[in-house]
Write a structure and sequence with these properties.
Layout (H helix, E strand, L loop, with lengths): L6 H7 L12 H12 L8 E4 L9 E3 L6 H10 L5 E5 L8 H5 L7 E4 L6 H10 L5 E4 L6 H8 L7 E5 L9 H10 L8 E5 L7 H12 L7 E3 L7 H10 L8 E3 L8 H11 L8 E3 L7 H11 L7 E3 L7 H11 L9 E3 L7 H11 L8 E4 L6 H11 L7 E4 L6 H11 L5 H5 L7 E2 L9 H13 L6 H10 L17 H10 L11 H76 L1
Parallel strand pairs: 1-2, 1-3, 3-4, 4-5, 5-6, 6-7, 7-8, 8-9, 9-10, 10-11, 11-12, 12-13, 13-14, 14-15
Helix pairs in contact: 5-6, 6-7, 7-8, 8-9, 9-10, 10-11, 11-12, 12-13, 13-14, 14-15, 17-18, 19-20
């Protein structure tokens, strides 16, 4: 319960007031004490709530006997408080808001209730140079006062409105006033307007505000999820942000009323020189093949896109093929995150995706295919594409449509133990496939890939070295290297010297590791003389066979001469026979 008092009264009695008389619980009393004494515990945040959220010591749970006037005063005077979250009923006429507006240390203010006194809030925005984040998540009672408060020149960088159904409370003119009030905030870097119910000219007015900022705009992130934005509204917004040269994130998720016409405008925005978007969220927008094809046209020439979310749509095989074609175009080499979960494409779409994964220019790090029920054939296609991929680190997908064979395919992808060379050719980049409980047996390989990047992000040889030492402890298969002869001895020594970093991946003493090296050298040295001996007699055999072939050639020539002689002799006999017969007839 609060008795109306002015600031002078609170200041004069602050050290004398008995905190147990103005609070309803020991925790609330302790919070008041810490605020009054400037305790550093509230350097992060204070939560003023109707009911507990996490039952934390920083939660002030308001009851009837709590004096909010005193609470507001102590918050206002505190010089350490970094964040304030308000979600409680504030009785009309309370001086709580007036009190907190005197604070100059709060950096983040989250209001999830009707504070009533928005004019006082305006003074807080204008006078607190540390306040850089304001989030409002409750229906606004007085549009004019709120617009006046928001129109104060402030130091805000982040402004979030969430679940404000303004259309039920205010006219188009009043909502336009709130949108226009933002013209005084060109320093804003992050704006989130979620489910706020703008209708009529609201989006056009907001777009005009963005245009008015011009070169002074600092806007980097614009979130507009679930606002029923249509084609006309999107076209207005795109026109407004055309000059926001710092804008790198745009979220339009949940605006399913945007059709092909709207996406065509968005695609055109991608192709403009002013577009520098790095992150685009188009989840839950009803994007089908036709819309995906239109979108892909713009992606073909958009160079800076790093994150694309198209989850929970209806994109089929044709749409995926178009998107992949756009994303693999020569201009686009920067995409790092792609979310295609909960779409309608089949194994043909997976086959299209494989071309994106195996592209030499691929920079993709995270690919989400959650809830797509990819079978063994699809897994085989993905695994083949990942064989030579060196960028993808996370592949989210369900294996409910596959069998144990699919799991085995991924296991071989991570570490093909059939030979040392095949281990080297395995994938050493992937850190996650599926979900944590789907690949328990392969967890050690994920861990190796992950730790290898963390410990030595430049020299990625360490990971395959570790896998080789796990499955081929002393490099038993040395035959492929015998041709190097003794020149290979320093190579073995250098290899084991580099592999010393692997000791951190599995428990092994220095002595055991040294025995590995000695064993490998012994096997190699022992095998080399056998190779030399085999090589000598092989050479001797080769020379003998050359001589044999030479004699065989001479023998062949002699046989041909003898055959010719025989034929001449037969011809001679025939001539003699004819001659004898001729003489006899005479």
């Amino acid at each position: 319960m609060e008795v109306s008092r002015d600031y002078t009264y609170y200041k004069e009695h602050a050290q004398d007031v008995k905190l147990e008389d103005i609070t309803s619980s020991v925790r609330n009393k302790n919070i008041m004490q810490k605020l009054r004494d400037g305790n550093s515990d509230f350097k992060d945040s204070l939560y003023i709530l109707d009911e507990p959220m996490e039952d934390d010591d920083c939660e002030f749970i308001v009851q009837q006997s709590d004096d909010l006037g005193w609470l507001g005063y102590f918050v206002g005077e505190n010089k350490r408080l970094g964040g304030l979250f308000i979600k409680c009923y504030l009785p009309p006429g309370t001086s709580f808001i007036e009190g907190i507006c005197r604070n100059r240390s709060i950096e983040s203010l989250h209001i999830d209730c009707d504070v009533g006194d928005y004019l006082s809030l305006g003074s807080m925005l204008g006078n607190n140079s540390n306040l850089n984040s304001l989030q409002v998540g409750y229906s606004i009672g007085n549009a004019h006062d709120f617009a006046v408060a928001l129109g104060q020149r402030s130091y805000l960088k982040d402004l979030h409105f969430e679940n404000l159904d303004l259309s039920d409370d205010f006219s188009d003119e009043e909502m336009s006033g709130i949108a226009q009030a933002l013209s005084a905030q060109p320093q804003l870097e992050d704006i989130r307007l979620e489910s706020i119910g703008f209708e009529g000219n609201g989006w056009a007015t907001l777009a005009t505000t963005f245009m008015g900022w011009g070169r002074n705009s600092k806007l980097k992130k614009l979130d507009l999820p679930f606002n029923n934005i249509g084609d006309e509204g999107l076209q207005s917004i795109l026109g407004g942000i055309a000059n926001c040269r710092n804008l790198v994130e745009l979220n339009l998720s949940g605006n399913s009323q945007i059709t092909v016409a709207g996406l065509r405008a968005l695609s055109g925005f991608f192709q403009s020189k002013s577009c520098r978007l790095e992150s685009l969220n188009l989840a839950s927008m009803g994007v089908d093949d036709e819309r995906a094809i239109v979108l892909a046209t713009g992606l073909t020439t958009h160079k800076s896109l790093k994150h694309l979310n198209l989850s929970q749509n209806g994109i089929g095989d044709e749409g995926i093929a178009a998107l992949v074609s756009g994303l693999t175009a020569a201009a686009n080499t920067s995409l790092e995150t792609l979310n295609l979960s909960r779409n309608a494409f089949t194994i043909a779409g997976v086959r299209s995706l494989s071309t994106l994964i195996q592209s030499e220019r691929s920079t993709l790090k995270d690919l989400s295919l959650h809830s797509m029920r990819i079978d063994d054939d699809g897994i085989s296609i993905l695994a083949d594409a990942l064989t030579n991929n060196t960028s993808l680190e996370t592949l989210f997908l369900d294996l409910h449509g596959s069998t144990s064979a699919g799991s085995n395919i991924f296991s071989r992808l991570l570490c093909d133990t059939s030979s040392i060379n095949n281990i080297y050719l395995s994938n050493h980049t992937l850190q996650t496939i599926g979900w944590s409980d789907q690949f328990i047996d392969e967890g050690k390989y994920f861990s190796l890939n992950r730790q290898g990047k963390q410990l030595n992000p430049i020299n990625r040889r360490l990971v395959p070295m570790c896998k080789i030492l796990i499955h081929h402890p002393d490099l038993a298969d040395m035959k492929p290297f015998y041709k190097w002869k003794l020149k290979f001895i320093p190579v073995i020594a250098d290899w084991f010297r580099s592999a010393r970093g692997c000791k951190g991946f599995f428990e092994e003493s220095i002595e055991t590791f040294q025995r590995r090296q000695l064993s490998a050298m012994y096997r190699f040295i022992r095998g080399v003389p056998m190779l030399v001996a085999d090589g000598y007699w092989s050479q001797q055999l080769k020379q003998v066979r050359v001589k044999k072939r030479q004699f065989e050639e001479v023998e062949k020539q002699l046989l041909e001469i003898l055959e010719k002689k025989r034929k001449v002799e037969e011809e001679e006999m025939q001539v003699l026979d004819r001659l004898s017969g001729q003489r006899a007839s005479l």
